[in-house]
Amino acid sequence: MSAYHVPARALALFACAMPALAGCTSPVADKGPGAQASAGPKMNPQNGGARWAFRQTGDITRFEVHAGDRWSGDGTQPKERSEAYASGKLSLTQPNDVRFDMMIEPGPPSTAPWLTLVQLQSTFDPGEAGHSPPFAIELRDEKMRIGSRFDPAVISKGNDAPYELHYVDTAPIQRGRWYAMRIQVKFDPMGAGWLKVWRDGKQIVDYAGAIGFNDVVGPYFKAGIYRASAREPMAVRFRGIRIGTLPQ
């Protein structure tokens, strides 16, 4: 039986009742057999400390970045961040199941040459250089992109892992609209992994092959805005974040 959990009905109804959140699709609509109501994961913010950077209201988490909003962990690098990471780790042995709704608020088009909205980021081994995540939902030229990386080396040397682009929108995303996302992934950097992604119930990625890094501890979920420096402000909301595993 799947370990995936769905949000409490009361929280979903509250979210759908908020007039500012148009296009609501309740995350309790597809419970699945044996599903249980549960709160989402504990999320830990990473941002520059601005008052607008991070807000949680019930089951909804909102992120916002302005030009110059740098997290201290990024030093003086030309990038900006308002993200939060889940405390728990994803499985390296079982398929993972991640669900959430995501909405980019109306605003000026993104000009950042790279921007991530969701990461399944590696837990770096001792002595390992930092690197880009094994899975990411990205935004470039206002189009959603989905990519992955892998490295079978015991200790990754840097940010040079092979990158696989699985999906690119043919048209700009609709700002102000909620997208229901589901990610299922089995990490295996040796070649026996797989990745499936659905958006609004339609499968947009079906990949089999190497994905992930040769780590001791599993990756973790991150959401928010992480981008190359850009002049325009941007805000994104997430709701109904649920993380679990699937049977083998």
3D architecture notes:
This is Polysaccharide lyase-like protein. InterPro entries: Polysacc_lyase. Keywords: Signal. It comes from Sphingomonas ginsenosidimutans. The chain has 248 residues and is mainly beta. It has a single domain, classed as Sandwich (Jelly Rolls), CATH 2.60.120.200. 4% of the residues lie in helices and 42% in strands. It is built from one helix and 15 strands. Strands 1, 4, 6, 7, 8, 9, 13 and 14 form an eight-stranded mixed beta sheet that branches. Strands 2-3-15-5-10-11-12 form a seven-stranded antiparallel beta sheet, with no helix packed on it. A hairpin with a 2-residue loop joins strand 11 and strand 12. The longest helix is centred in the first third of the chain and has 9 residues. The chain is globular and about 40 Å long.
Write the layout of secondary structure elements.
Blueprint: H1 9-17, E1 43-47, E2 54-57, E3 60-65, E4 79-86, E5 96-104, E6 115-121, E7 135-140, E8 143-151, E9 163-168, E10 179-186, E11 194-199, E12 202-208, E13 212-213, E14 220-228, E15 234-245
Parallel strand pairs: 8-13
Antiparallel strand pairs: 1-4, 2-3, 3-15, 4-14, 5-10, 5-15, 6-7, 6-14, 7-8, 8-9, 10-11, 11-12
